[in-house]
């Protein structure tokens, strides 16, 4: 039997959808963004928002199995070291989830520089 739970529903989407199957639950976390004047500040706030969604479901970054990251006007030489530094601060040094990073022209609002979505599995 599959159960669905919608966490923090908004107009048109939920922040997280939890699918429960047997002893496992899979968390589908919508793209999170964060406030800040630059990419580093927004990346920190974005990871904090991801962490909040995980905590709402009794999960941690260790439960994340997949992340998709979107960075506006991505410049690998400048932006990748910033992203990696912040990611390491939240996820540690090993056992990273499968990940995709995509440079995009824009996100849902012009002030957003980064958006990250995640999937986590919890026993």
List keywords for this structure.
42% strand, alpha+beta, 6-stranded mixed β-sheet, 2 helices, globular, 123 residues
Instruction: Spell out the helices and strands N to C.
Output: EEEHEHEE
How many beta-strand runs?
Answer: 6
The dominant shape is globular
The residue ranges in which pLDDT falls below 50 over 5 or more consecutive positions are none
How far apart the termini lie comes to 16 Å
Describe the biggest sheet?
A: 6 strands, mixed
Mean pLDDT: 96
Number of helices: 2
Task: Briefly summarize what is shown.
This protein is an alpha+beta fold. It is 28% helix and 42% strand. Belongs to the RutC family.
Word description of this protein:
This is RidA family protein. Belongs to the RutC family. This protein has 123 residues and is an alpha+beta fold. The chain is 28% helix and 42% strand. It is built from two helices and six strands; from the N terminus they run βββαβαββ. The protein has helices at 39-56, 76-91, and strands at residues 2-10, 13-21, 24-32, 64-72, 98-104, 114-122. The protein has a six-stranded mixed β-sheet with strand order 1-2-3-6-4-5. α1 (39-56) runs parallel beside α2. The longest helix is centred in the middle third of the chain and has 18 residues, at 39-56. The protein is globular, with a radius of gyration of 15 Å. The two termini are 16 Å apart.
């Amino acid at each position: 039997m599959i159960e669905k739970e919608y966490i923090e529903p908004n107009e048109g989407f939920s922040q997280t959808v939890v699918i429960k199957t047997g002893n496992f639950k899979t968390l589908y976390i919508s793209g999170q963004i964060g406030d800040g004047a630059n990419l580093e500040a927004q990346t920190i706030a974005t990871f904090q928002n991801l962490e909040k969604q995980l905590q709402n479901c009794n999960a941690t970054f260790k439960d994340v199995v997949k992340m998709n990251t979107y960075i506006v006007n991505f410049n690998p030489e400048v932006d990748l070291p910033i992203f990696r530094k912040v990611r390491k601060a939240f996820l540690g040094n090993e056992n990273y989830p499968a990940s995709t990073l995509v440079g995009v022209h824009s996100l849902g609002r012009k002030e957003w520089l980064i958006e990250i979505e995640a999937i986590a599995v919890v026993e």
